[in-house]
Design goal:
The protein is an alpha+beta fold. It has 4 domains: about 5-165; about 240-390, Beta-Lactamase (2-Layer Sandwich), CATH 3.30.450; about 395-410 and about 420-485, no CATH class; about 500-690, Nucleotide cyclase, GGDEF domain (Alpha-Beta Plaits, 2-Layer Sandwich). The chain has 23 helices and 16 strands.
Length: about 750
């Protein structure tokens, strides 16, 4: 059995969690738990009995809510993914339409579970006590549902990028960039910090921050206004209520039956009130006369005479209203008439707020000869509210606003990610394309990659129609310009130009010069365009071979080419390139002969030695090249091939480095024009493993003849050279055969050293 992949395991885990959630007991608005599978049958109508409107009350009479059948999609999804798990074991996750459908359904199923988990709070949460009464399983199941939804949404949004092959290429590009880091630990730490400075992170922080601030300000402002409105409405209603109660007692003073009916009526009205109060009570003391026009009246205790808590009782058993509390209230109220004045009293310990109005009776008393109206305090009407009852609509609204706020923040994160893809991805792809071109140019300048225009290809992956697309097009045009310039710049020039300043150094280099023989005759009668085409054909063959053998083309002069090699194997590489060029030119010659076209041959000269290498030219037009006798001698050797009829001539310094790998023969001791010191030169015949027996025979005859030639033994020399000419038509032997015959008739002077001195370049 194959091992399941990680995505399949996570898919199975999410399916299992959603299935388990569907059958776990959750807490609703009452003490009994409910099960998500029963919501369509129990979430309807009965919650009206709880004062919450249409909703849910477990165990009560219920109807049928067909809309809640949507929650059955959660277990259906779980079963689907549970069975699908066994069909994807060991298989790589695919990103086709089925994967898209799976991602959407997973988000929908998890969202339904999350909605079902938060629905009781939206319906019944009217105080902090409701949340405190929830069992831990409620929080765990709801948290799991939200976590599955968030992870599903994140996986789905990520899969959108995974379906884009260019994004996969960019991800591979980033992975390679990390591998190339000089200090992986430092790069890793830097990458961690760079996450916070990426465009997508900035967009996310900016959008979420703005949206959160706007929603927070609106929520706080509206909730604050709503809270103030509720408190004002309750306060206004309470003031009116206690004033009416005080007036009713004053009117019905002494009529216990009338007051009893009034209290009973208030009890019935309170049952259907939006803000149900806890108690409406009348506190009185008729035994002691207290007049409000006294300076500092002494207040007695006031006993409860009527209360909605005990509507059938006269003087119910309730705590009295202490006189000290009344004195404190009057002291805070200040001087003046207190008739109709209502005050509110907070009791944080009990979580209540009371509104108290004085019951004042106007008495007419005789003061001397005059009758004076005085305000007698009979007691107080007091209405008490539980603060949770007052704040119930505010708390429910706050819960609703909080849920909606979180939902919109969640939605804004997803939308920001999607919108960010259209903004960020083109920039990422643009960066990848530019970086590839930059790395390629840097590799060329460091000499790590061949300098060829064909490799400088800019891939435009930007598909949007905006400024980013225009920028990508401009970069493509710039790369096209660079691609057009690169063929005219040698690798050495490009490499040394990296420093950005003129420089000169001494180097040990091997130089290879080539010249096409008979090219001028070949091009007679041709149009200039044809001449350039043929020349480019030959030079392209030579350049390709030189570059493949770790060399670099310094310059072209008509049909001549100058190349150089560096490194410990420079002599071997130069000779290998020479032999491959000869082979390629031979194939080209055979092809042209079959087509009846004129043919050409090639001469090659190779030398090695120290040179001055650096920038040469004017201030605004520089070139990197080599200067020195080593370069001049290599050029003279290429020209010396004409005098000897040879193909590839090398100096003794080169010969000492390649003699174990190549079959060579000594050609002569020559002194090039402008130099008196002679040099020994050799001709490369073939690689030793590939050398044919006739080449060994040519070499032996030639070297014997050369030895006799230098001893002035003209007959012996003529014999050896003549055999090479007759048997193999060896051109250098033919040159020496003519020399020997000339010297046999007219011997050289006695001080002749055997050196051939060239009078032309």
């Amino acid at each position: 059995m194959k091992k399941p992949n990680l995505i399949a395991v996570l898919d199975l885990l999410s399916a299992f969690l959603l299935l388990a959630w569907f059958f776990l007991p959750l807490q609703g608005g009452a003490a009994k738990p409910f099960y998500p599978w029963g919501m369509p049958f129990i979430w309807n109508g009965a919650a009206a009995a709880l004062g919450t409107g249409p909703g849910f009350a477990p165990g009560a009479a219920s109807g049928f809510a067909p809309g809640f059948l949507l929650f059955y999609l959660v277990p259906l999804y779980g079963l689907w993914r549970f069975t699908a798990f066994f069909t994807v074991l060991g298989k790589k996750p695919h990103l086709g339409p089925s994967a898209f459908l799976t991602g959407v359904t997973r988000i929908a199923a998890a969202l339904l579970a999350a909605v079902a988990s938060v629905l009781p709070a939206l319906t019944f949460a009217d105080s902090a006590a409701w949340f405190a009464a929830q069992v831990p399983l409620t929080w765990v199941s709801g948290g799991v549902a939200f976590a599955v939804n968030i992870l599903s949404a994140a996986a789905f949004l990520s899969s959108i990028n995974e379906r884009n092959p260019v994004y996969l290429q960019y991800r591979e590009f980033r992975r390679d960039a990390k591998k190339q880091a000089l200090d992986p630990r430092q790069e890793k730490g830097k990458a961690f910090l760079d996450v916070f400075f990426r465009i997508r992170s900035k967009l996310l922080v900016a959008f979420i921050g703005i949206i959160s601030v706007i929603i927070l300000i609106l929520s706080v402002t509206l909730l604050g206004n709503y809270r103030t409105t509720i408190l004002k409405a309750v306060g206004d209603g309470a003031r009116t209520q206690v004033e009416q109660a005080a007036a009713a007692y004053r009117v019905n003073l002494g009529d216990t039956i009338a007051m009893g009916e009034y209290v009973n009526r208030q009890v019935e009205l309170n049952k259907g009130a939006e803000f149900e109060y806890h108690d409406l009570a009348i506190y009185t003391n008729l035994k002691k006369e207290v007049y409000l026009d006294q300076g500092k009246p002494e207040f007695p205790d006031y006993r409860a005479e009527f209360s909605t808590l005990f509507p059938a009782s006269h003087f119910p058993d309730l705590p009295a209203l202490p006189g000290g509390q009344v004195a404190s209230w009057f002291s805070a109220a200040g001087s003046g008439s207190s008739r109709g004045r209502v005050t509110s009293i907070e009791n944080p310990a009990d979580g209540t707020v009371s509104y108290m109005a004085p019951i004042v009776k106007i008495d007419t008393v005789k003061k001397g000869d005059e009758r004076v109206r005085r305000e007698r305090l009979l007691g107080f009407s007091v209405i008490t509210y539980d603060r949770t009852v007052i704040m119930r609509p505010y708390f429910k609204t706050r819960v609703t606003v909080s849920v909606i706020t979180l939902f919109f923040i969640y939605l804004s994160v997803a939308l920001t990610y999607l919108i960010g893809n259209y903004i960020v991805n083109p920039l990422l792809f643009l960066r990848m394309s530019v970086r590839k071109i930059s790395d390629l140019l840097a590799a060329m300048m460091r000499g790590e990659t061949r300098v060829t225009a064909s490799t400088l290809v800019y891939n435009d992956y930007v598909t949007s129609r905006d400024e980013i697309k225009s920028l990508s097009a401009e970069i493509n045009d710039m790369v096209s310009v660079i691609r057009g310039i690169v063929p005219y710049i040698s690798a050495s020039t490009l490499k040394n130009a990296e420093s950005g300043a003129a420089s000169t150094s001494r180097k040990e280099l091997a130089f290879l010069f080539t010249d096409i023989r008979g090219f001028t005759t070949l091009c007679e009668g041709m149009q200039p365009e044809e001449v350039v085409t043929i020349l480019n054909r030959y030079l392209d063959l030579e350049t390709e071979i030189i570059l493949n053998n770790h060399g670099d083309v310094d310059k072209f002069v008509g049909d001549e080419m100058m190349a150089f090699f560096e490194g410990p194997l420079k002599e071997v590489n130069a000779c290998r390139a020479a032999m491959e060029i000869r082979h390629a030119m031979m194939e080209e010659k055979e092809r042209r002969e079959k087509e009846g076209l004129p043919v050409v041959s090639i001469g090659i000269g190779i030398n090695v030695g120290p040179v001055v290498f650096g920038s040469v030219g004017a201030r605004d037009r520089m070139d990197f090249t080599s200067i020195g006798d080593t370069v001049n001698l290599a050029a003279r050797l290429e020209g010396a091939n004409k005098a000897y009829g040879s193909k590839s001539l090398i100096t003794e310094a080169v010969y000492e480095k390649v003699k174990d790998e190549y079959l060579c023969r000594e050609i002569d001791m020559i002194a090039v024009k402008g130099k008196n010191e002679p040099v020994r030169i050799f001709e490369i015949l073939q690689e030793k493993p590939k050398a044919q027996p006739k080449l060994m025979e040519i070499k032996n005859h030639f070297e014997k003849g050369l030895s006799a030639y230098r001893r002035c033994d003209w007959k012996a020399a003529e014999k050896q050279f003549a055999q090479n000419v007759e048997l193999f038509k060896d051109a250098p032997s033919g040159v020496y055969l003519e020399r020997v015959r000339v010297y046999a008739k007219d011997p050289p002077p006695d001080d002749w050293d055997g050196v051939f001195r060239m009078t032309v370049k």
